[in-house]
Amino acid sequence: MEPYPKPVLRLIDLFSKLPGVGRKSATRMAFHVLNASNAYAEALAEAIRAVKNDLRLCARCFNLADAELCAICRDPKRDPRVICVVEDTKDLIAIEQTGAFRGLYHVLQGHIDPLKGMGPEKLRIDELITRLQKEPVREIILATNSDTNGTATALYLVKRFQPFGLKVTRLAQGIPVGGDIEYVDTQTLGASLKQRTEF
């Protein structure tokens, strides 16, 4: 028999589904909410609701956005001639935190993974090709992860870019093989951007 009332138990169960949150942490979080003011609990619920209802994908780069275009695509100070291609928004955020990149992005929304049924057609590759046909792009930086799937995705993209005659670079070494960009420290990631090599 559970010692908690049903509403508390439901909250613990929901918190325990968050990545990296075990049952004990979920219980602490549930009791934090329980002991917090009504205003805090309502603000938390509204923030969760807004993330699900008010966010969309940027119509240009597929980053998270609260309008048709994300803040980066709307920024006139960004260099539209350089596009950094990343697997997901977490990678974009990691690169932005370095302060070393002032171009635009393209978020693939994943990587090629045949074992999970993720072929190129399920990524935002066709949309990227359309951008290359319409925008004044001179360089593509491939910032996919350095694991097998990220490398396979980068190799596929290089073949798709050949007709455009673009400079295609890859992040320099320093990111551990098999590592995820979102977990690399900002100094290493910034140096990797500056020392990128032609692919």
SSE diagram, text form:
Blueprint (H helix, E strand, L loop, with lengths): L5 H10 L7 H13 L2 H16 L2 E2 L6 E2 L5 H4 L4 E8 L2 H8 L6 E5 L17 H10 L4 E4 L5 H14 L5 E4 L15 H9 L2 E2 L1
Structure explained in plain terms:
The structure is a single chain. This protein has 199 residues and is α/β, with parallel strands linked by helices. It has 2 domains: 6-53, Orthogonal Bundle (Helicase, Ruva Protein, domain 3), CATH 1.10.8.420; 70-198, Dna Topoisomerase Vi A Subunit, Chain: A, domain 2, CATH 3.40.1360. It has helices spanning 6-15, 23-35, 38-53, 71-74, 89-96, 125-134, 148-161, 186-194; strands at residues 56-57, 64-65, 79-86, 103-107, 139-142, 167-170, 197-198. The strands form 2 sheets. Strands 4-3-5-6-7 form a 5-stranded mixed beta sheet. Strands 1-2 form a two-stranded antiparallel ribbon. Helix 5 links the parallel strand 3 (79-86) and strand 4. Helix 1 (6-15) packs across helix 2 (23-35).
Brief sketch in words of this structure:
The protein has eight helices and seven strands; from the N terminus they run αααββαβαβαβαβαβ.
